[in-house]
Every structure is written in C-alpha cells, then in structure tokens.
Amino acid sequence: MAVYDGQKMAREFSAGGVLVRWRKGRWWMAAIEPQGRTTFSESGKDTLALPKGLIDPGEKPEQTALREIHEETGAVGELVTKLKDIKYFYVRTWGDGSRVFKVVSFYLVLYRSGRLGNITPEMRKEVRRAIWLPLDDHERLSYKGEREVTHAAWQYLREHTELQPGGAETASEV
Predict the structure, then answer these.
(1) Rounded to 10 degrees, what is the CA torsion of 77, 82, 85, 86?
(2) Stretch (H or E) spanning 113
(3) pLDDT confidence of residue 2
(4) By the 8 A CB rule, do 148 and 84 touch?
(5) What pTM was estimated for this model as a whole?
(6) Alpha-carbon distance 9 to 98, whole Å?
(7) Which parts of the chain register pLDDT below 70?
(8) For position 122, what pLDDT does the model report?
(9) Residue 118 — φ and ψ, nearest 5°?
(10) Alpha carbon 172 to its chain's center
(11) Domains of the chain (ranges plus CATH)?
(12) Strands (E), the chain
C-alpha cells in the first residue's frame, strides 16, 4: 500500500505498447476502443486508447506489453524500446471504491503479423474494437498520458529511420 496525502492506497503496475506499422508511406498505430466506455467526453467522441493491462505475477513489463497488444488487438509485434512510464491516480468504480496509484510502462513495438481486430470472444468483454490510426494523428487518443507516449514514439521513429522499410533512403517520408 502506498501512502499519499495521509491516505493509504493500492498500487497497480501495468504495461502496454504503441504498436506501429509502416504502410502507405507513413507510420500507423494500433488503438483500441474499450467496451463499456463508448463516449469519453461531452463531445461524444469514442474512447480510443493504447493496448495495456496489469502485469501478471512472474511476468516482466516487456512481456506484458507484448501479451496485451496481442490480446487486445489480435496483432503480434516485436519490442523496440521502452518509451516512458506514465503515473496517475484513479478511484476504483468497482469493489471497494479505493483510490489507486498506477504506473503504466509503455514500449514501442513494431508490427510483425496478425490481423487487427482478430480478438478472442473473452477479450471482447474488454475491447469493443481495434483500429489503425495514423501515428501523427495521436491527438485522437482520449488520454493525455497516452498522447504523450505516442508523441515519444513518433520522435523515436523520426530519429531511427532504419526501422522504416527502405531505411534511411526513405527518411524524407517520415
């Protein structure tokens, strides 16, 4: 239990990823729309988020990120680098309603195989759909911390043109 402002609170550790794919001359990222949260704000926009989830006992954050990407999107990726940790507080809307301090480690992951949206029936309870979004359209993500993470991914990919098919000779397209 962590203590914040004199209150004891639970701690949670999660991991997720920015799954990217080079297609049609630009970088695309996988985003999910969680079940049960179809609207995020007064504007009525769909909630769009990055795939992520709790780290299972005995699992490393990197393993969690790859597992969650596969479970929530249907795609398989290869880990490139850690992008950043985001930290925040939230209040559980289920169970005890306690305040929770959460740390989510995000990784940059290159798409390798699979079909986005090929999600198991069990995961359909959590994820409504998975879609490809242009990486430079990261403002469509619903959460500020995740927009910052995708911006970090964008910066990393601009600096590492060797990750793009064709490598440095197509760097002007990034």
Answers:
(1) -40
(2) strand 99-114
(3) 52
(4) yes
(5) 0.85
(6) 7
(7) 1-7, 37-45, 166-174
(8) 86
(9) -80, 75
(10) 27
(11) 2-169 (3.90.79.10)
(12) 2-4, 7-23, 26-34, 52-54, 75-91, 99-114, 127-134
